[in-house]
Task: structure prediction
Amino acid sequence: MSHACIYLASVVTVSLAMCQPLHAQDAISLGRGSYLVNGIAACTSCHASEANNQGDPNLAGGRKFGSGENQVFAPNITPDVETGVGSWSDTDLIDAIRNCRRPDGSRIGPPMPQTFRFMSDADIKSIVLYLRSLPAVTNKVVTKIPIQNDSTSTEDVKAVPSPDMTDPIKRGRYIADGLAHCSACHTKVSPTSPEFCALKNQGGRLFKIATGTLVAPGITNTDLASYTDSELINIITKGTRPDGKKIIGPMPVTAYAKISAQDLSDLIAFLRH
Ligand code: HEC
Ligand code: HEC
Result:
C-alpha cells in the first residue's frame, strides 16, 4: 500500500474519533480563514467575480468553466441570502466544501476541488468564519449545468484532525492535499476513485485551454528532481519556470503567491520525500 493510500484510509478511520485537542497554531480564526480562502486554498481563483477579480476578496461568483453542454458557473459564496449562501448553516457550508454536497442533497462537481475532504476541522471552520465575515454581494449566478461529478464514492468525511505540526513531510502532505489541492489537478482521477492512491500526483489530467488541451504534468519526487527548491518555489508562487517561460492554464499562482515561507518549505519537503 502506498503512503498516499495509508493517508487516505486514515482520514476515513479518524473520522470516527471524537474531537481531538486543537494545536495552539490551529485556533479557529478569521486571519487563518482569510489566508486559506485568498491564498493557499485559492477559493478566490474560481469564486471571485470576474469584474472584481483584482485582489478584492469578492466571492460573488459567475466565472464560467467548460463550454457548450458541459459548462458550469462558480456560485456566489458571499453571505447574500437570496443569491449567495447566506441561508446555509455552518454544517451546510462544511458539507459543501468537504463532501461536495449542497443542502438539497445535489452534488457539487468539478472544477470545485474534491480534495477539501482532507481539510482539518479547525481549518474548515476558519474558512466558514471568514466567509460569513464578508459583505453580502447580490449576484445571481444563472444556470448550474453540472459537469459530471467524477466521484465514485459517496462516503462522507465527518471529522479530520489537524496534521502533526512537528513533522514537515506530514504537514507538507496536508498542505498539498488538504489545502492547496495540488493533487486535484495533478492526478488523472478523483480523490474518491480507488485508483487515486496509485496515481496520485502522477499527472495526466486534461484541461481545455484556448489553444488546445493542456496535460497536467506529474509532480512526484522523480518528476521534480531536476528543479532546485527555489526553482520550484518560483513555479508555484510566480508561475515562472527556470527558463523564464510562464506556466499556462488553471494553476492558481496568484493565490499561491500568498503562501507563507514555512508552508512553502513544508510543501517542498513533502514533494521531495
Ligand atoms: C478550481 C475552481 C474552484 C475552487 C478552487 C473552489 N471552488 Fe467552490 N466551486 C467551484 C464551482 C465551479 C462550483 C459549482 C460546481 C457545480 O455547480 O457543480 C463550486 C461550488 C462551491 C460551493 C457550493 C455553492 C452553491 O451555491 O452551490 C461552495 C460553498 C464552494 N464552492 C466553496 C468553495 C470554497 C470555500 C473554496 C476554497 C476552500 C472553493 N469553493 C474553491 C469552483 C471552485
Ligand atoms: C487548478 C489546477 C492546478 C492546481 C490546483 C495545481 N496545479 Fe500545478 N500545474 C497545473 C497545470 C495544468 C500545469 C502545466 C502548466 C503548463 O504546462 O504550462 C501545472 C504545472 C506545475 C508545475 C511545473 C511542472 C513541470 O514539469 O515543469 C509544478 C512544479 C506544479 N504545477 C506544482 C504544483 C503544486 C505543488 C501545486 C499545489 C501547491 C499545484 N501545482 C497546483 C495545474 C494545477
